[in-house]
Amino acid sequence: MISFKTFLLTFFLPWLFMIILSMAWVNVGLCGEDTPVELESTIVTAGKIKAAADDFPGSISIADGKFMEEHQAGTTEEMTRFIPNIFYKTSTSGDAFVSRGISTLDTSIYTPMGLYINDVAYPLSYMQAQSLFDIQRVEVLRGPQSTLYGKNSSSGVINIVWAPPGNEMRAGAFVEGGSYQTWSGGAMISGPIKKDTLFYEASFMGHVTDGYMENQINRSDDFCDDQAFSGRGTLRWTPSADLDFSLTLVGTDRDMGIGDLRYLNGPSATDRFRGYSNHSDRAEQNSLGQSLRGKYRFGTLDLLSITSHQSFTRNAVMDADRMLLDLGVAEIDLDQDSWSQEFRISSSEGFFSSWLLGLYAGRDCVDNDWALNHVNAMVANQRLSDSDTDSFALFGQSTLALTHRLDATVGLRMDHVAASGSQTYIPHAGAVTYSKDISETELLPMASLSYAFTDSINGYFTFSTGWMAGGYDYYFATSEDNFAYDPEYTMNYEAGIKTAFFNNRLRTSLAVFYTRIDDKQVKEEVPGSGFTAWKITNAAKAHTTGIEFEVNALPVHNLEIFGGIGYARAEIDDWTGTSGGEFVNYSGNLLPWAPDLTANVGVGYYLDNGWYGIADLFWAGRQFFDAANTLEDNGYALVNLKLGYVFDHYDISVWGKNIFDEYYAQKKLKDSMGNTMVEDGDPMTLGVTLRWRF
Question: Where are the domains of the chain?
Answer without folding.
Answer: 4-693
